[in-house]
Amino acid sequence: MPFHLVSLAGGPSIRLDHPIVLFGRDDECDVVMASKKVSRKHCCLAQVDGYLVVRDLGSTNGILVNGRKVAEARLAPGDEVQIGGFKYQVCGDALGGSDDHSAVGGGQ
After folding, report:
1. What does the alpha-carbon distance between residue 35 and residue 1 come to, in Å, rounded to a whole number?
2. CB 11 within 8 Å of CB 91
3. Cβ–Cβ under 8 Å, residues 17 and 100
């Protein structure tokens, strides 16, 4: 099932079209998030056997899933994920015509 993250703060949606997607401030990340609240290599999302898993990579500020800080969590459509100051909702349907793996800006 193709997954994507819909921004809850008006930013771009993110297509999760690779088995593992790395999020962080570092230019080598798949999704570059320009914010001091985001670590260089903050977290990754992985598609495992038809479901999505988020894993904190030792970030300073952690990740929140549905308002709770987690080190790792299995995600389902409708779940909310917060990475630094960026909030997203997990969607499990096809994402049409939007940006994929865009740099996410804004000094949040």
Report:
1. 30
2. no
3. yes
pLDDT tens string 63-105: 999 999 999 999 999 999 999 999 999 998 644 434 444 555 5
Q: Which of 58, 59, 64 is nearest to 35 (CA)?
A: 59
- The 3-state DSSP composition of the chain as helix, strand, coil percent (nearest 5) reads 0, 45, 55
- Residue the block writes with tokens 């495992």: 48
Instruction: Quote the CA–CA distance of 82 and 66 in Å, as a whole number.
Output: 8
Q: Find the helix or strand (DSSP H, E) in which 95 lies.
A: none
Say if CB 67 and CB 73 are below 8 A apart: no
CA distance 9 to 98: 16
Residues in the chain: 108
